[in-house]
Specification:
With about 260 residues, the chain is of the alpha/beta class. Helices cover about 35% and strands about 20% of the residues. It has a single domain, classed as TIM Barrel, CATH 3.20.20. The strands form 2 sheets. Strands 1, 2, 3, 4, 5, 8, 9, 10, 11 and 12 form a 10-stranded mixed sheet that branches. Strand 1, helix 1 and strand 2 form a beta-alpha-beta unit.
């Protein structure tokens, strides 16, 4: 089991210098990963995750990092592929690319219909990103994207598919993914930590949708870390990562939790 910190990219967490410092502290305290939200709209300030993760990659050496999640339907896949390739090389192979739909306000705020074509753009966009990172010449003539005679340098970037569970969105890109980062709603608090039994079902559905049987499963629940005595049960269910985030914590509170180390 590996343990990661998961932080918003806006408000108190909108300062890239603060996020870089938290990541450095997390690496020193024995955490395995440091992941960021990827939003355009949020409480000012908003930090661009790709710029911030580049700074974090330059200041750390072992911790895994990445955006959780990048909304592929509002991105150009070739630009995303260049960013992922660059960050993977800068970090020495520590990037995991989380992909999903994103939040409606990041579309509607700029005059884009938040639902129109998003599912098919996600599936096709991830497929094209993987093709571009393969190092092979790409000929792609899809519903949403085209690429003709394009060849990028080969760079391996693991992808985690994501979305609200039990909807089908988390599994749209399963065949191109190395792992799953499902999100579960809770009417009272916004998000919930899946139980080990639910984690087992998530993993089974991911594999049934074309994901690898030995793929990663990252469990997160909106500010809560699964209880220490349940770590074994999550591992038996197929989970490989447990995430703690700062969504409901002040920066100082999260800093203290980070310094305490992961619940091994």
């Amino acid at each position: 089991m590996r343990f990661a910190i998961y932080v918003p990219c806006y408000g108190a967490y909108g300062d890239p210098a603060v996020l870089s410092e938290l990541a450095v502290t997390a690496e020193a305290a024995g955490w395995d990963g440091f992941f960021m939200w990827d939003h355009v709209i949020g409480d000012p300030l908003v930090a661009d995750p790709w710029v911030t993760l580049g700074a974090i990659a330059a200041r750390t050496s072992t911790i895994t990092l990445g955006p959780m999640i990048t909304p592929v339907p509002r991105r150009r896949p070739w630009k995303l592929a260049h960013e992922a390739s660059t960050l993977q090389r800068l970090s020495g192979g520590r990037l995991i690319l989380g992909v999903g739909m994103g939040v409606p306000r990041d579309y509607s705020s700029f005059g884009e219909p938040p639902q129109k074509g998003r599912a098919s753009r996600l599936t096709e966009g991830v497929e094209l990103v993987k093709k571009l990172l393969s190092g092979e010449e790409v000929q792609h003539d899809g519903e949403h994207f085209q690429a003709s005679g394009v060849r990028f340098a080969p760079v391996d970037v693991p992808v985690w598919a994501s979305g609200l569970w039990p909807r089908k969105v988390p599994f749209l890109a399963a065949k191109d993914a190395a792992g799953l980062f499902p999100i579960m709603r809770d009417d009272e608090t916004g998000f919930a930590v899946p139980t080990p039994e639910q984690a087992k079902q998530m993993k089974a559905e991911f594999v049934a949708a074309g994901g690898p049987a030995d793929g990663d499963l990252a469990i997160w629940g909106g500010g809560a870390l699964p209880e220490k005595d349940l770590v074994g049960a999550y591992a038996e269910a197929g989970a490989t990562w447990l995430l703690l985030d700062g969504w409901k914590s002040s920066v100082d509170e999260l800093r203290r939790n980070i310094a305490a180390g992961p619940p091994r």
